[in-house]
Amino acid sequence: MFKYLVNLCGWGDLKICLSNVEFKKGDKVIVEDESGNILGTIKNAIRQEFKKENDAEIFTILREATERDLKNFDKNSKKEKEILDICRKEAKRMELEMKFVDVFTTLGKGTVIITFIADGRVDFRQLVKNLSRIFHRSVRMRQIGSRDEARNLGGCGVCGKELCCVKFLGEIPSISTDMAKVQNVAQRGSDRISGICGRLMCCLSYESDQYRDMLRGMPEIGSVVNIKRGSGEVIELSPLEQMIKLRMSNGEYVIIKKEDLK
């Protein structure tokens, strides 16, 4: 059994897929989805041992894409702008606050999957019925967030490299402000630690666990600790160097090692 990271056409999702056949990077394949068959491109092979219980969602590669599949995909792609225009007009007529960002049609049964962004939940059931009647096809709505939109658009981060969500991330991780705090970067301001999607950078999750490990045994900022020279307030921590900066009771500033604490 082979395991691959596959870039699904239509929205650019990176999904983990299994196959009984070996493929190489760049091969076009047909991936099985509950909505129908989707064209995908092999991004890279995943070499680690496969453990199904550790993967959130696993897809199956049915076969290599044929010339007919590629022509079918191109035919559907040419209709995307027309479908989006109809969606926007119908949603506006129904007074639904939705921003439509993409659409693609699966192969085979030809289910139309429409992707949108909205503030909060939207009752789009009647809209789906109306669109199904217009397109004479099954229609599905998929609400996404700004992170997913950034992945679709692509681009470079402040580091100068291609966005992580585009280049190698499968499922986009959940990022919390605690990850920024534990790495002492929260004070830089939201604009300095946010990506082009306007949300906290995905890379904040990469080293947060290591920082938590390094902070074990270190006092909290604002607490008072005792050392040989007296007591002082903790005003700064350096987890990488295992150093602590104190403001002593006499106003003096000193930097000590974690093991110097009493």
- Low-pLDDT stretches are none
Return Rg in Å.
25 Å
The CATH class of the largest domain is identified as: Alpha Beta
Terminal-residue CA separation: 56 Å
Count of distinct strands: 12
From the spread of the alpha carbons, the general shape counts as elongated
CATH architecture of the largest domain: 2-Layer Sandwich
Strand residue percentage: 25-35%
Q: Give the proportion of residues in helices.
A: 10-25%
Structural class by secondary-structure content: alpha+beta
Looking at CATH, which topology of the largest domain would you report? GMP Synthetase, Chain A, domain 3
* Rounded mean pLDDT score: 86
Number of domains: 4
How is this structure best summarized?
This protein is of the alpha+beta class and 262 residues long. Helices cover 24% and strands 30% of the residues. The protein folds into four domains: 65 residues, no CATH class; 66 residues, 2-Layer Sandwich (GMP Synthetase, Chain A, domain 3); 65 residues, no CATH class; 37 residues, no CATH class.
